[in-house]
Structures are given as C-alpha cells and as structure tokens.
Amino acid sequence: MGDKTLISGYATLFIGVALLAFTFASAYLFLSSGTPIAGSQDLVTVFGEALAPLIVTCIRIMYLGVMGWIGSVLTIRGVQLVTQLKREAKPEVKPIAPTTFETPIPKTTGTMKTEKTGKIDKVKAAK
Q: Over the stretch 41-73, which tens digit does the pLDDT of each residue have?
C-alpha cells in the first residue's frame, strides 16, 4: 500500500509542476503577443473598440490565475505526501542509554581484612 501512495504522491507532484509550467508558458505567450493600443480623438470610440479585447484579457488573466493556484496546490499536496511517506518509512533510531558499571575493587590483603572485620585501617604515610 505504501508504494501506491508514494506513486500517487509523485504523480500529484508532477501534475502540479506540469500545470505550473504550462501556466507560465501560456502567460509568457500571452504577454509576448503584441496587442496594439488603440488611440483616437473620440474617447467613446476608443472605449467601444477596446472593451472587447479588455474583457478577453481579463478572462485570460483569471484563467491563468486559477490554473496557477490549482497547480501550486497540487504541487504542495504532492510534496507533503511524499515527505510524509519518507518520514514514515524511515526507521526510528533510539539512542542507547549508557549503562553504569561499578568499578571492582581489587582484592588485596587490606580489603579482605576490611570485608571480614568491617573496619577500615588508616594507611600511614611514609615519612
């Protein structure tokens, strides 16, 4: 099941990126096409002639905006899905807690006497 989810995550990611690339290519072609600016002495005539291309331009801008928004949402969802699956597939590493060992006291005649009697003899410093 993880493979199918991973494949769908990558598919969503690539569809979103492709849609964004197509949107940017369409926007570039739209902006690179030379639309002439109408000019005239009569303002009513200019608005009458420019209104139809203005409406078409607004529709194209809205179309590009919606395509860009959908492409970015698909890309974000694809990235989230892929990264979430990568995190779940990674095994969790638990640190090993160090164990404390008591250092053994070497067995000497002095320590053996101490174990038997329970009294610690003071070591006299050499003069």
A: 777 777 777 787 788 888 888 988 999 999 999
Hey, is 124 helix, strand or coil?
Answer: coil
Check if the beta carbon of residue 85 is closer than 8 Å to that of residue 5: yes
Query: Quick one: pLDDT at residue 120?
Result: 63
Higher-confidence position of 38 and 126: 38
- Would you state the structure tokens that stand for residue 124, as one six-digit string? 């006299």
Backbone angles phi, psi at 85, to 5 degrees: -70, -35
Q: Which two tokens stand for residue 122?
A: 């003071």
| Domain coordinates in residue numbering, the chain | 2-88
Give the pTM. Answer: 0.56
Give the whole-angstrom CA distance, residue 42 versus residue 48: 10
Look at residue 121 in the predicted model and tell me its pLDDT.
Answer: 58
DSSP state, 120? P
Please name the residue ranges forming H helices in the chain.
2-32, 43-89, 109-117
Q: How many CB atoms lie within 10 A of CB 71?
A: 20
